[in-house]
From TrEMBL:
PROSITE patterns: HTH_CROC1 (PS50943). Residues 5-59 form the HTH cro/C1-type domain. SUPFAM superfamilies: lambda repressor-like DNA-binding domains. It comes from the Bacteria. It comes from Neomoorella thermoacetica. Keywords: DNA-binding. This is Anaerobic benzoate catabolism transcriptional regulator. PANTHER family: DNA-BIDING PHAGE PROTEIN (PTHR46558:SF4), TRACRIPTIONAL REGULATORY PROTEIN-RELATED-RELATED (PTHR46558). GO terms for molecular function: DNA binding.
Amino acid sequence: MENRVKDLRLQRQLTQEELARLLGVSRQTIISIENGRYNPTLMLAYRIAKFFSLSIEEVFDCAKELKKLAGGKNDVL
């Protein structure tokens, strides 16, 4: 899943450690989310979006994953 976490974090001039502390997760979790190696739980995605005053959809883009689940069809949602 693609996301804007790194860009949003840098806009706020936060380190990965600072963002992790503010969200109550490990720095490794932030690193993994930013690198696209870990998809956060719905609750964590919500907390991240709320922290940046955005909707989940404005932070996370799961269009590619939804397309895969639909067998390549574009009309999933």
